Amino acid sequence: MFSTLDIGGQNLARHTGLTSANDLPRITVDRSISGVDLKLKLQLYKVRLLLLTRNVKLAKREVKHAMNIARGRDSSMALFLKAQLEYARGNHRKAIKLLMASSNRTDAAMSSMFNNNLGCIYYQLGKYHTSAVFFSKALSNCSSLQKEKPLKLLTFSQDKSLLITYNCGLQYLACGKPLLAAHCFQKASLVFYRRPLMWLRLAECCLMAVEKGIVKGSWAPSDRSEVRVSVIGKGRWRRLLIENGISRNRHVDSVERDVWALGGDGQPKLSLPLARQFLYNALHLLNCSELCNSKSIVRSDSSLEENESSDGASSKNSNYKNLPCNDSKASTMPAALINLNGDLKEPKGGTNQEGIQNSISYYEDICRRENQMIKQALLANLAYVELELENPLKALSAAQALLELPDCSRIYVFLGHVYVAEALCLLNKPKEAAEHLSIYLSGESNIKLPFGLEDCEQWRVKKHIDCEEANVGAAAAKNSSPEGLEDFMFLKPEEARGTLYANLAAVSAIQGDLERAHHFVTQALSLVPNSSEATMTAIYVDLILGKSQEAVSKLKHCSHVRFLPSNQQFNKSS
């Protein structure tokens, strides 16, 4: 969401032309604003900073102060920020009321913000088609802003079309339209090209397009490999040319500059090799960000040690007792300032400067945790893509890197073990694959749940609902239907358990332990009866055991299933 602070200070006049020393006092008077207006502006910037650092509780108090200062004046800026606050707290209907109360919606810049913010709210409410209408209106407002003559310098700061286009991309992705989403992300990449999350979204567009059958799912050997071989020249000048599509630092080099080539319909050419490029770009940016953060932490630690050494031994010991027990790389916030819900508490008796500094530290911790979540998704997607491109060594490397991440989610630990096991099977190492899957075995033949519902809750968007509309919002969320669309969710714990049974059955069949394979695949079909991979494994086992009638019976219920070699019967759980 945007506020009027995002489109520049249109109320502050700028002087142009040559001036003499005698003109300076007059210019200063012309550019001055009243003390009350300046106080309001500073207060609004403070609220904006607190919202950016996600300190919702302190922002709530400061926005009330801003509304009191704006009383009797044009309060459009304060209303936009208050609506953004309620949006962050999860009070979406109250945010709509505040936006509708803002009176200044006549010019194109204000209208674009108004429509964009409404689009964001309806997106969070699950009304994706309604949000698309408002995003379209916001882009139309930006287009009319660009057509204004003469073109002013302020117009460039007021034009937020690329940011709105990114919102459109998210909306199209939620609606299951990967081509349109990728087209929007492509335009928004002019602004967000240094954001790992944008490259992850582009990779998701490629994966969704392949899953829906919009683009081809089989690739030539030259497309699967990162190394491309071609023949150039004739006769005695004939040579073999070997090109590396990905440079050593894992981001796209000159060989891959045409990956954004558009098709005849003007849409990006999505593919699994392109998804791999996007994932490598995101990992490169994420690793660079972690390196910069680690350097800043080392510098702050060294300055802290210098201050402690100058304070003396007694104060040094007392300070160490107050330091949090967490690793400094994982958190730089004192544990006493964070409550049980993970929200920032306001220290009693602290100054405004201390509150803002604590908000910034809290925000940096949030960014580190979010980067950790992004990295898990990137490595899991990369392992999946490499398996689809039949590069088991690359898939094994990515899946092992996923399992080595500290504090990795149980969901991604499950995916990591499944992808490692499949890669090992493709490398003709079924024994090692069985070891990765057997960690979920309880006893000889029972499998425990790889993760629970509480693990799935951690990956849902956290909403700050702490006001009188909490009960109403919960009831509305329970009864609302997202316009016939389903969220792109993880497997349910029981389905993941069935996947493990199916994969253990496949490994047991490869190893020749058919009785155990029959037991595992029976359990798998009881948990995931519609799984084509489990059904294929069951048919394979029945045929080997001589149970032709049972195999034919299963085959009648899945005549659409395409048979694969036994070492490819893994459920990738994408």
Automatic annotation (TrEMBL):
Asked whether the keyword Ligase is assigned, the reply is: no
Q: Report the superkingdom from the record.
A: Eukaryota
Q: Where are the annotated TPR repeats, by residue?
A: 498-531
Q: Enumerate the Gene3D superfamilies for this protein.
A: Tetratricopeptide repeat domain
- Ranges annotated as biased composition (Polar residues): 312-321
Gene Ontology process terms (BP)? mRNA catabolic process; negative regulation of translation
Q: Which UniProt keywords apply?
A: TPR repeat
Instruction: Write down any Gene Ontology CC term.
Output: CCR4-NOT complex
Show the segment(s) annotated as Disordered: 303-327
The family annotation for this protein states: Belongs to the CNOT10 family.
Name recorded for this polypeptide: CCR4-NOT transcription complex subunit 10-like
Q: Which organism is it from?
A: Gossypium trilobum
